């Protein structure tokens, strides 16, 4: 497997591998959506099958739920879990305050609900996701289909009074049709380029009728685990104000990653 991985894939894998060490038997764990989160689900599935790990997973999308079930993780709903020990998810961007932009996979509503129902949220990412200022990645805003043109116009009008660099708003498409979320809603992508005040923007956008939720995650993420193509993994815990580095060495003969102290 390792010889087939690109550097970005390796970075995502080692970040997921490190994050899986936070998961203990008996935990109820929120499982994120996206390519990086899929590595995490695969790692946890391997631990369930080979190490006897016993967890209950709450997926943030139908796609993640199907994968979790496939690899052997017991899947339950958030209503059944009520409260989670941990959520592990990817991100599209994050800054030094661990404020995130999520929703590239169209699941940020469920991801935010699950993350805020958890004792801790861990984000796993490759190094390209770190930015000085949020906004290069379009900000997803989930909206109800009813009155879509009105909601979009209100968002565009609101952006004229916000300190952002761009103000283009586009409807996310899936081929020739609008992209539909697991909740049956649409997504408007805000091409802002630079967000000077994420907290203000989040509050203002969510007050617009028709808006369900935006993709800014503020004061939600506790730990960020960043993988690198050379096998290094950096972990920053904003709650405990700690940082650490480990390295995973690729063993081609076994197709596994062995942890080595850095």
SS-based class: alpha/beta
Radius of gyration: 19 Å
Total count of helical runs of at least 4 residues:
7
Please list the strands of the largest sheet in the order they lie side by side.
3-2-1-4-7-15-16-17-18
- Indicate the proportion of strand residues: 25-35%
Residues in helix, %: 25-40%
| Principal-axes shape call | globular
**What is the number of beta strands?**
18
Between the first and last Cα atoms, what is the distance in angstroms? 24 Å
Task: Please give a structural write-up.
Helices cover 29% and strands 29% of the residues. It is built from seven helices and 18 strands. The strands form four sheets. The protein has a nine-stranded mixed β-sheet with strand order 3-2-1-4-7-15-16-17-18, sandwiched between helices. Strands 9-12-8-13 form a four-stranded antiparallel β-sheet, with helices on one face. The radius of gyration is 19 Å and the shape is globular.
What attributes does this structure have?
single chain, 262 residues, alpha/beta, nine-stranded mixed sheet, 7 helices, 29% helix, disordered C terminus
Please sum up the structure shown.
Helices cover 29% and strands 29% of the residues. It is of the alpha/beta class and 262 residues long.
Q: Secondary structure elements and their pairing?
A:
Elements: H1 7-20, E1 28-31, H2 35-51, E2 56-59, H3 62-71, E3 74-75, H4 78-81, E4 86-89, E5 93-94, E6 100-101, H5 108-116, E7 121-126, E8 139-143, H6 148-159, E9 168-171, E10 173-174, E11 177-178, E12 186-191, H7 198-206, E13 211-214, E14 216-217, E15 223-227, E16 232-237, E17 242-251, E18 256-261
Parallel strand pairs: 1-2, 1-4, 2-3, 4-7, 7-15
Antiparallel strand pairs: 5-6, 6-14, 8-12, 8-13, 9-12, 10-11, 15-16, 16-17, 17-18
Helix pairs in contact: 1-2, 2-3
